[in-house]
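for the record, two folds in this file. i put them one after another cuz i was lazy. first one right below, seq on top, structure tokens after. the second one comes after a little note so u can tell where it starts
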Amino acid sequence: MLALPCAVALLVFPTALVSVLFHYGRFTDQDVRQTVAALMGYGVGLMGLVMVKILAPGFYARQDIRTPVRIAVIVLVLTQAMNLAFVPWFGHAGLALSIGVGALINAAWLFIGLRRAGLYRPSPGWGRFALQVGGATAVLGGLLGAAAHYIDWIALRSDPGLRVMLLAGVLVGVAVAYFGLLRLTGLDPRQFARRA
């Protein structure tokens, strides 16, 4: 439930995050831009990385270690091939993008394998859940995108205290909006914190 908003934040709000965390001392404006490019590449694949951790145990539970390993090896080869294509276009960010796209391919392949083997059947309600989380994430992304557009995070280097307070305010605001929308659509986020 939180992986998707985090991935969106890495894609639409990376300059603020990098600026507040690293843009001090010898870390220049250009360094921020270079780091942001790589971070966005990883943002592309964050959902894939999370889904691999969720889907691979579906094979392990049936004592099938070979299938996820075989998929991972093939995806590793594909990732290296993507490096050859992406690095000339995007430089160092192409490496991160290759890893991100590779993670998405890996997750999709595992999901398709589980479905074809009949090991996974979505329960009723997953469609509604996806719409609830997707809608709230779209609003979160729009708010973060607006904050990224209207606040010059790099120029605020001269006032780091203000920059930190603005970031905190934006993050708290979008978190309230995200969880508030989930609540309004009938999804109680607290149910995911319960332990069996």
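(here's the note) second protein begins now
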Amino acid sequence: MSTLYNTSVTAVGGRAGMVKSDDGLLDLKLALPKALGGKGDATNPEQLFAAGYAACFENAVIHVTRNASDKVKDDDIVVVGTVGMQPNGAGGFALTVALDVTISGLDQTVAEEIVAQAHAVCPYSNAVKGNIDVAITVTVN
């Protein structure tokens, strides 16, 4: 199987450092969130993960409807990704993920079916499957 796309991001300094992509488009300072005792004056890995997952999941919804009668357009969907961190009981930490999906122009049942299909094809969903329970809510308007 051939790789469709890959990228590299370099992190230096951990949670109080910076991240920079190989093409220079991503170049961000990192900071420990205030909730964890830090300054909170920059982004953090959980925000970056939430942003990536939400954007990727939104595109997965659009992708699964590409050849369907109930198409979802870019402006018809909003995904809010929430990533949390909690102790795992073994001295480490685990992530929690919630995706709140709002879709315009569909009925609830159809929207839920599309989101379930998107969850099956989304690379982020497949990456965390078996490791992180992803709570998904679907709302239509």
